[in-house]
Write a structure and sequence with these properties.
Blueprint lengths: L2 H11 L1 H24 L7 H4 L3 H23 L8
Helix pairs in contact: 2-4
Length: 83
């Protein structure tokens, strides 16, 4: 079995999981940015607030971007993509 068809099978098999992880990252990233502006801290990410402000914002933005990328990867139909 060629490598491309193997990767395509793995992506199709796990597409829902990848999409859900992407939406969770996107939601948590946007919510932490919004809650921080309002002045509320999300208790699961309390370790993030202890770091430098710039580092914590970079991590939150990275979470949002990673969420978008995972959603895109999970929703792409890899069998219809051209080589």
């Amino acid at each position: 079995m060629p490598l491309q068809s193997t990767l395509s099978f793995i992506m199709i098999k796990n597409a829902t999981t990848i999409t859900v992880i992407g939406f969770v990252l996107l939601f948590v990233g946007i919510m932490t940015l919004f809650l921080n502006v309002v002045g509320v801290d999300f208790f699961l990410l309390e370790w993030l607030y202890r770091w430098n402000v710039a580092v914590s914002y970079i991590i939150r933005i990275f979470m949002i971007l990673a969420g978008f990328v995972l959603i895109y990867i999970g929703q792409t139909d890899w069998d219809r993509e051209e080589a």
